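Our collaborator T.R. sent over the components below with a one-line note: 'Predict the complex.' Nothing else. No constraints on interfaces, no templates requested, no preferences about which chain binds where. So this is a plain run: every listed entity goes in together, and whatever single assembly comes back becomes the starting point for the next discussion.
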Amino acid sequence: MTIFLASIAILGLTGLAGALLLYATSKRFAVETDPREEAVRDALPGANCGACGLKGCADFARECVVRGRLDGLTCPGAGAEGMARIASILGVKAESRERPVAVLRCNGSCEARPRPYAYDGARSCSIMNAVGVGTSGCAFGCLGCGDCVEVCRFDALKMNPETGLPEVDETKCTACGMCVAECPRRLFELRPRGRRDRRVWVACSSRDKGAVARKVCAAACIGCGKCFKACPFEAITISDNLAYINPDACRACGKCVGVCPTGAIHATFTPVAPKQDEN
Amino acid sequence: MILSPSPHLHTSRTVRGTMLRVCAALLPAWATGLWVFGLPVLWLTLVCILSCMLTEWAITRLMLRRSCTLGDCSSLLTGLLLAMNLPPTLPLWMAVAGSVVAVGIAKMCFGGLGCNIFNPALAGRVFLLISFPAAMTEWLLPDGTTGATILGQLKANMIAPADAPLTGLFFGDMAGSAGEIGSAALILGGIYLLCTRIIHWEIPCAILVAVALMDLCLGFPPLVDIFSGGLLLGAIFMATDYTTSPMTSRGMLLYGAAIGIITVCIRRWGAYPEGMSFAILLMNGFTPLINTYMRPKRFSPKPAEGAAK
Amino acid sequence: MRTKTFRIGGIHPPEHKDASTAIEWLELPRQVILPLSQHIGAPARASVEKGQHVERLQQVGECPSFVSAGIHTPISGTVKAIENLPMAGGMPQQCIVIVASEEDHAADTAAYENYRRQLEEGTGPDIATAMAESAENIRAAIRDAGIVGLGGAAFPSHVKYTLKADQRPEVLIINACECEPYLRCDDALMQAFASHIIGGIELLMKAIGAPRAVIGIEENKPESIAALAARIPAGSRIEIQVLKTKYPQGGEKQLIEAITGRRVASGALPISVGAVVANVATAFAVREACVDGTPLTHRVVSVTGEGIPAEMRRNYMVAIGTPLGELPGVPADGAKVIVGGPMMGRTAVDLRGPVTKGCSGLTILPPQTRPAPGPCIRCAACVSACPMGLEPYLLSRYGMLRMWDEARALDVADCLECGACSYSCPSGRPLLDYIRLAKQRSRK
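Returned assembly:
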């Protein structure tokens, strides 16, 4: 019996001594932190995506507290609500800015764009892009290995096996810009969400001449200029055989979507069918 | 047309081929054991190999639901090595338990081939040695009776080191596990592995040199140490296991030398007569550290301004 | 003499040097596609217009800056277009397309035949006049001929051979290793035109002011060694150093170490250890430019590999700009066509792409798929194979996990992309694929 008590006593005392030692060290060597820093960190998504331009969420929180202001500091992941919360922690006013969304500027699904070449190597868009044109003949289009899906920290990108293209989940996209930076062909663009989520964009990046682009992809922008003519707001420019819709000028009327002969212009809504005009 | 990054040529060497060649190199020593101790060696080997392979199959297919990895033949090699490390008279259910620990815990728990920290066969053996010390130290003598190994006799001061029968040790006329008694056959296998460049010379050489030097310092006949116990088996086949040994030449030399020194220390001053398994497992644990600090020598000297920073 | 070699790493892939070493002269093509960027540096600027008639050997692309190379046309004809066309890898590039009429073609063929006869019989102009020129003039002739390093890197030669005032070259190293398996274009060139090559080396020595030259050549080319040895004049400061057959013996840093025993630091140029390196085919082109005035419009190209029958594995003298698909023996599909050797070459998917200055050969392999990668068993084969003393298994893992900083800390920038690691991996892991990615992304 005594041996039990003795061992309990010895172990208990050792444990107590250790606990005291730990407590003393933690007090003695404690690092002073602003409690607001922790509060800010809790308000952040914690993905460490680096979209703010700093090394990670902890860095961002420290920077916020050190500056005491929010000008120039934005966490795309936290969104407007998150930034408002951070602003209230810091006791400043949040500047409200609309959060954009990533769109893919390629439309070359497996159906529209045949894949005549086989690829034999490590599955990564960057690696494939350094080796050559990819599995389709298009030197500008999506390579389909999903590097963007891999770098997205918010689970907002998914590869669609049917089209072979990534799809953006706009409810999850925080416009952190990781996919924009990662895509070796720069196929993602951050565009304003638009009023009532109505937005229109050219889902193609091919600067090939129309005939060449058409040959490798049935859904390519051929730079024909029909959208340019159809646009009532002069939002569309065409350079290098490629149309671009200026999001600031676009009113999302959807007229260009209907006139595009290859279906390269995408919209988040169903546009009104164009009237059968003279030609 | 095919788009593909360079290089476009690949060596004909494969993981499976390497494993099978190591198995082939083990065969002479195994045959020596079979010849000396008879059929128990065969049953033990079959049980070990089958239970190792079954364990891997069950874990990959039934638990992880991945594709079967038996094709790389690594569990075949683990089973063979384990069998060659056990007393031939060991109850077969113990051999099964050792195999399950070797493959199931030492290898698959860490992530399978290439991810394990400790040599699976040795982990299995040491598990058995600690769990069933009596059964694991009862050795069959060539004449059919049981007794202690040469190292056991030395430990118990039953014979003097100078009286150890060297020729008998060299040709397998002693008690021991099936794999460790045939020194001549083990050396033959080692030469084959060195010539086919499957193992690097650094590890076995460093072990042998370290053991010999330690013994000379302690006034013990080095050849008795080298030809007895699992030293050759360990130096040639176990310490050279790719996954658990260092990646660079300098690292391998350090690793081998440390194994040699620890082995002699255990044999001379430790409680166990045999120290190779523990020495290798200990150094397995140090391998990541060795890899971190013993980088290969770079070709290019660093530019001057980089050094000045 | 003792054969030398580099000390760290290296592999011995099967050589497959079974192509014939004769050089066949292909008929001039009716149409050439001349990319404006066949070299490292700024792309050339087209100096002709669409519809303009050009003469054979005329310059059609000029250097916009110092680090660039001019482009010349191998055929007379009309400029059909200046537009983006796909290269062998499928990526488009600005090209000048020139089409020959029947008369153009007939006149060119006669002139080309004449040039060939002169070369083969050695009856062309003498080297003495060219040797009498100043170093500066030789370099100008090299620049005007649009010569680039013909070993594959295609760095503009006149840039490489213009040394700063404080740079003293001690030795000119001629790279005749041809360490890539399969390829035999340099071997063929040395056997056919050894004396021209020696002449080119002398001109290069004069151009850079090197006191001596060493030809580094692997021991698997005894005929070439004999041919060169026989043409080196008595009292010449050119010597031959036979090297062990080991890949990558022809890597610039490896070659310099093998011959001089000195190692070039990371990121430094060979001149930092007193060496200048030139490919043997470059030396030949230099002689042709300086003595004959022929710009770089032709080169020897090997067409070889298991993907084509043994009798079709040959070397051709080809006009630069010829579409790859027009070379004899190149299959239209069903094979892996590699521009360059099998270790460092790049696969071609579009055979309309032209032969460029840096194209040393086409290696045609069966459409073998690469081995399916298994887990890394940490066998250290890649560490032993790496000629730069790197840790490919780690670098490739860092590349896979996008850990660029860690890769940079382990000297990924030193990787010369020779492929020895991927070659030697028994698990068939795509080591170099990811190392290349890490190298590219960790560059800051």
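Summary for T.R.: Chain B has a mean pLDDT of 91.
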